[in-house]
Every structure is written in structure tokens, then in C-alpha cells.
Protein 1
Amino acid sequence: PSLFLPLGRPPTPRERDFRINRPRNTAQIDVANPAAGDWFIGVRGLSNYAGLSLLASTVIGEPDLIVWPERLGPYIVTEQFLEGDCEVEEGLVVPGERKLLRFTTETRNIGGANLVMGAPLGNPLFEFHDCHGHFHFNEFASYRLLDLEGNVAAGGLKVSFWHEGVMPWALAAPHHARYDCSDQGIQAGWADIYDSGLPGQYIDITDVPPGDYLIEITVNPDRVLPESDFLNNTATVPFSIPGADL
């Protein structure tokens, strides 16, 4: 499609301030420092089309982290932990047979600037994990299980992450990764993904009765990383713990 974006007047192919042509079914225009006023959007396809959707958003030139709830994919497993296991030593779980609610955490940077965390060595916000053999950013996310009245049923732990950015999710995002273990961060338009099978990617629900609950995930809970908006750092997803006969 072709997109036309004029300021203060309806668009035409010849009269527009911004234009983009793409051979595929998606197109995006980015306007740096847009002027105040009424902006118009025009769309022209190469043939007849239907099901058009438009999204307009304002991006501030700072990082902004959110949890992408569609990625969670929660499920329940039973696992055995021994004294000396990394997760036991780190205080994430107690030894023995535990019933875990596992899920994946996708952290997106929807802001207009990279989240720059830098080199971990010598940075007090990072800690070297002997069991894993690399640095993690301390207490990057907190996980809780809430009942439907908002009471904490399980969790409350804060978990540490190693940030490098795993995939671009925005059309205009750079295609090449910028950060790694030695220079950590999340690019604008990129997401960091912690898979459900990784250490700490769970809430211990061993003593939680069956019922309906909410999984609550908060990134940057202590607000130690700079962001343009801290109010969108939490996501909640409904989840039901089945009874023993189900």
C-alpha cells in the first residue's frame, strides 16, 4: 500500500508531507518532532482491499518497558529440587518436590530510545551468578499470583535477568542485535524474551488451592532503570488451577 500523511489538509498523492510505498500489506511512517495540528492519513492500494486497520501512536525519546501478555503461555509442572541446586541457593525455591506455574516473560521496549544498561562488571545493579556463569541485572522483574480480590496467593519474588534483546517486534526497528552479555540493554522496537523453561521463570504454587487467579508480572518494579512511563510496567493474565480430579 501507499501511505500519505499531510498536515492540515486532506491527503492526495501529490499533496502530502510524508509518503511511503511498500509492496507488502503493511506500511509505517515515522515522523520525528511532528508539528502541532491536525494530521490526515491517506491509504492507496494497488487493487481493491478490505479489513484495513490503522494505528497512530506517539513515542517519546526515552525507553519504555512493557510486558507482552500474549507470550506468557502458562502451564503447571511438578519438579524436584535438591540442596545445592542454583535456584535453591539463589532463594527462588525450597528443596523438595514443588508444583510450579511456569510462563514466558517477553519484555518489549516500546519507547523511542534504547534501554542502555552497559557493561555489568563493576556495576552494583548487576550480580555475577556463579551457577550460570554470567552477570544478571538484579531484581528486574517480580512475579505474583493474585486471587480475584487482589490478595497475594503465591510469589512475591523478584528475579534477575540477563538482557541482550532477542527479537525486533516493530516494523521500523533495526534488524541487527545491538547488545550482548558484556554490554547489556534492549533496543527500541526490540524485545527480550525469557523462556518458561529457564530458572526462576515460575511461581511456586505447591500450597495454593485450586481456583481462579491472576498472574501478575511487573518489569523494572523498583524503577531503577530510566523510562518515560512506569505505569505500564505491569501485566496480569487470568489462570485457573485445576482440582486434583481434573
Note: The helical segments are 86-89.
Protein 2
Amino acid sequence: QASFDMALSKISNKTGFWGGGINIFNDEAGVSEMGTFQANLSFAYHLYVGENSTLGAGLMGGFAQRSINYDNLKWGSQFDGYSYNSALQPGEPAGSDKINYLDLGGGLVWNYSKGEKYMSGNDQRKAKVGIAVFHPHSPDYSFYKTGEKLNMKLVLHGDMLIGIANTNLSVLPGIIYYSQGKLSELNGGAMFRYLLKHESNYTG
């Protein structure tokens, strides 16, 4: 997997700024070489809603493909009573070896960032809260045209950076929740950051 994103307009703009990115994913697993390839473009606009915060809205869209190789699969019906016999027909229904579909997504994110009051004060505060929806159109997902759909996926997330004033230590708590079909997952935790060294440059 590889991804890249950047601001597309000057961040110093008084009202907000555009952002864009690209994400490419490829995976292949098992003797059937079951694969997933996906390439998505994303665009977002981040609006300044206060001195230290922005509200962003983004859309994602792209091409996706599932693939499978049936040639290496072995079935119980190909056991002739003594051993595996590849000459025997497996009796399995024939399915497509590739599925192509359009993938879509979108989301909202709120960012807050307040810097240190003075050099090495370490009293900065950062926070981020967001919601995202993937596959809202539930594209077809079956090699056998059985009507199986790729369920919509919902993601809720939030994290913070809290600097402990006049120390080198910061706390970074975070939480993320996923929901897709009948499945859901909640992860929470925190990291601790210790700044080894302050560095500054003086000119003029």
C-alpha cells in the first residue's frame, strides 16, 4: 500500500485550503491468489472555523478489482478413494475470475491546534475528531453473482496531543471505532512522548 496527500492551495489563505491525495492498495493471498487491487483519488476542503481550528470535508473515489485463480484449488470431490486426482471434475459452479467496481467514500474532520506559549513551554494542545463512510453504495462483491454486497463501513475516530507544561513529556490518547455489516470494533489507547532535546536557530 502506498499513499500521498498534500495541500493544494496556500495554507495561509484566510478562509481555508484545498487538499488532495492518492492511495494505491494491492493484496494477494493463498493458493487461489485471491487479490484485491484499489486505486483512489481524494479531495478535501478545510475551512477555518476559529483561530486554532479547521473543519474539513472530503470525498474519495476510484477503481477496485477483486480477482481469483481457480486453477490451483483442490476439492474433496477430486479424491478418487486413494489420492487426489486432478483429472476428476470438481463439480463446483463456474464463477468469474475478476470483479470490477467503483468505490466511493467521504468524511468530515475537525482539527484543533494550539502551539506553545513560549519556547520549551510544552503546553501545546492538539485534537482531531472525525467520521468517515466507505462503500455507501454497497457494490456487488460476489464471484458467483449471488447478490453479495460489500457492506458500508463507518469509522469514528478521535485523538489528542496534550503537552505537560514545563516538562519534556506529552500524552497522546486516541480512540477509533469501526462498524461494517454485523461486525464492529472499538480500539482505544494512549502513547507517551518524551522530547530528548529542544533546538532553535538564531539569525540576524
Note: The beta strands are 2-7, 16-29, 34-48, 53-67, 98-114, 125-134, 153-163, 169-180, 183-194.
